[in-house]
Write a structure and sequence with these properties.
It is a single chain. The chain contains 14 helices and nine strands. The chain has 338 residues and is of the alpha/beta class. The strands form two sheets. It has a seven-stranded parallel sheet with strand order 1-4-5-6-7-8-9. It has a two-stranded antiparallel sheet with strand order 2-3. Helix 12 (264-271) links the parallel strand 7 (255-257) and strand 8 (276-281). Helix 4 (50-64) packs parallel to helix 6 (119-131), helix 7 (143-152) packs across helix 8 and helix 7 (143-152) packs across helix 9. It is globular.
C-alpha cells in the first residue's frame, strides 16, 4: 500500500499523476496547536516523549493534508541519547556543553544502541497505525552537519573551526566522522525497522564546503549512512549545495533535495539522467501575496518535470511566522494539478 503512495512512487522514479507534497519543519513552529502542546515542554523533552512525538507529527497531516508525515525529532537527539551535553536554545539552536577539539574529546561519542532511543519505535508504531496509507519520513543529521555543531559548539556563520580542524588534523576529522556516521546510521535503522517508509539525511550546512573538500572529507561518511538503509528511498538535502548536487547523489541518494537558489530543471541537468529532485519553493515567499505564491508553485512544478520524479517541498524549513492557511492552500492547489 505504501509502495504505491505518491511519495514512494516519486522517490523511486515512478511518479504518479501529480507531485507529492510535504514541508520540511512542517511539524512545528507555525502551528498554534504545536505551540500549545509544546508549552511547558522543552524541545528535547518533546522529542523523547512518544505521546508528544506522535501528536506533533500528526498535526500537519491533519491540518494541511500533506502526502507524508515527517517524524518530529531533531538531528541532535541521537547525540543526547549517548550522553553528549546538548541544549537547544530558543532563537539560537543546539549548543554543545563541551565542544570537540582534540582526540580525547571523542570519548563521549560511543555507539548508539537501540535501547538508547526506545521511545522512537513506540512512537513510530503508533504513528504508522494512525497514518494508514500516508508514509512516514524518518531522518537524521549527516556526519558533517553534526560535526560542525560539535566542533563549533553551536550554530556558525563560517564554520571556521570546522574547516580548520578538517584540514589541519585529518586523522581526528576522519575518526570523528566515522563515529558520527555510525551513530546516524543506527538512528536511521531504528526508524526504518519501526516502520518509516522514507528517510531524509539532512546535511544542512554542507554548502559551506567546496566540491573538492566535500568529496574528500564528507562524501564517504554520508555514503556510509545512506548505505545502512537501502530498503527504503533515501532523500539527501543540504542548503546552498548547488555545486555539490552530483556528489550528494553519488553518496547514495535516491532523491536529492534542492534549495531555492537554482531551478529544479537546472538541478536535474546537473544531477544527470534518472535523477529525482525535491523542492524548492523559497520559504520567504510564504509571506508574499497569494498570486505570487500561486505563480511560484506552478513554476516549481513545471521545472520539476525535467526530472525523473519530483517531490514538492520548500527550499528549506517552514518559517515560524508563516500563516498555516497558506501551506494548506499550497497543498490544495497541488492536489488540483494532474
Amino acid at each position: 500500500m505504501l509502495a504505491d503512495s505518491l511519495l514512494v512512487r516519486a522517490a523511486t522514479g515512478h511518479p504518479g499523476p501529480r507531485p507529492p507534497v510535504w514541508f520540511m519543519r512542517q511539524a512545528g513552529r507555525s502551528l498554534p496547536e504545536y505551540r500549545a502542546i509544546r508549552a511547558g515542554n522543552s524541545m528535547l523533552e518533546a522529542c523523547r516523549t512518544p505521546e508528544l512525538i506522535t501528536e506533533i507529527t500528526l498535526q500537519p497531516v491533519r491540518r494541511h493534508g500533506v502526502d507524508a508525515a515527517v517524524l518530529f525529532s531533531d538531528i541532535v537527539v541521537p547525540l543526547v541519547a549517548i550522553g553528549v551535553g546538548v541544549e537547544i536554545v530558543g532563537g539560537v539552536g543546539p549548543v554543545i556543553d563541551k565542544p570537540i577539539r582534540t582526540r580525547s574529546d571523542l570519548d563521549v561519542l560511543r555507539d548508539l544502541e537501540p535501547d538508547d532511543v526506545a521511545f522512537l519505535p513506540e512512537a513510530i508504531h503508533a504513528l504508522t497505525t494512525e497514518l494508514g496509507d500516508t508514509p512516514l519520513i524518518g531522518f537524521a543529521g549527516a556526519p558533517f552537519t553534526l560535526a560542525s555543531y560539535l566542533i563549533e559548539g553551536g550554530p556558525s556563520r563560517d564554520y571556521a573551526r570546522t574547516k580548520a580542524l578538517m584540514h589541519s588534523d585529518p586523522r581526528l576529522w576522519f575518526e570523528l566522522l566515522d563515529r558520527l556516521s555510525t551513530i546516524a546510521a543506527a538512528f536511521l535503522r531504528v526508524q526504518v525497522e519501526a516502520g518509516a517508509s522514507v528517510v531524509q539525511l539532512f546535511d544542512s550546512w554542507a554548502g559551506a564546503l567546496s566540491a573538492a573538500d566535500y568529496e574528500t572529507y564528507v562524501l564517504p561518511h554520508s555514503q556510509a549512512v545512506l548505505s545502512a538503509v537501502p530498503e527504503v528511498p533515501r532523500i539527501h538535502f543540504g542548503v546552498g549545495t548547488g555545486e555539490l548536487l552530483p556528489l550528494m547523489r553519488q553518496a547514495g541518494a535516491d532523491v536529492v533535495g534542492v534549495d531555492w537558489r537554482i531551478p529544479l530543471d537546472e538541478a536535474a541537468r546537473r544531477l544527470g539522467p534518472g535523477a529525482v529532485v525535491q523542492g524548492n519553493l523559497d520559504p520567504a515567499l510564504l509571506l508574499a501575496d497569494w498570486p505570487v505564491i500561486e505563480g511560484e508553485v506552478h513554476r516549481v512544478i513545471a521545472e520539476g518535470r525535467a526530472a525523473a520524479g519530483h517531490i514538492f517541498n520548500l527550499g528549506h524549513g517552514v518559517p515560524p511566522d508563516t500563516d498555516p492557511d497558506v501551506l494548506t492552500r499550497i497543498v490544495d492547489l497541488i492536489k488540483t494539478l494532474t
